[in-house]
Write a structure and sequence with these properties.
By secondary structure, this protein is α+β, with helices and mostly antiparallel strands. The protein has one domain: Dynein motor heavy chain, linker domain, subdomain 3 (Split barrel-like), CATH 3.20.180. 55% of the residues lie in helices and 15% in strands. It is built from five helices and three strands; from the N terminus they run ααβββααα. It has a three-stranded antiparallel beta sheet, with helices on one face. The radius of gyration is 18 Å and the shape is elongated. The termini are far apart. InterPro entries: DHC (IPR026983), Dynein_heavy_linker (IPR013602), Dynein_linker_3 (IPR042228). This is Dynein heavy chain linker domain-containing protein. Pfam families: DHC_N2. One of its GO terms (molecular function) is dynein intermediate chain binding.
């Protein structure tokens, strides 16, 4: 596995089958054609997280460099997504007579892990 990853360091689609072993929840990476950019990651359930900043793997000299950058970008994108999710969800939750359509729109806008964390944060906030 390691030799294949190192040998295909500038070809992320070739090492996709190894991603599951390295990153929990990441099944596939989304690349932008010939440009050498990673734009997103997807879970095995088909949920996709699109990056704010694209990862340029063609400019990285080693596979561990762009993998580390990708890991950082996943964290950054999810962290920013949580802040946005909370800012959208709080008014929906606090409004008298919550509208189902607004709730479903919020649920369709964010990855499941962001939704769950947002619900947990708001639940704790309401209890305290």
């Amino acid at each position: 596995d390691l030799l294949e990853i190192i040998g295909n360091g500038k070809n992320p689609p070739a090492i996709q089958r190894h991603l599951r072993k390295m990153f929990s929840g990441i099944h596939q990476i989304g690349t932008a054609g010939e440009e050498g950019r990673i734009e997103s990651v997807s879970s095995s359930q088909g949920e996709t997280v699109r990056f704010k900043a694209k990862i340029l793997y063609s400019e990285q000299t080693e596979v561990n460099a762009w993998l580390s950058e990708m890991e950082k970008e996943v964290r950054t994108t999810l962290c920013e997504g949580l802040a946005v999710s909370l800012s959208v969800f709080e008014p929906i939750l606090r409004r008298e007579g919550m509208k189902r359509e607004e709730l479903f729109k919020w649920m369709d806008s964010f990855p499941a892990q962001i939704l769950i964390l947002s619900l947990q944060i708001q639940t704790c906030s309401l209890i305290e």
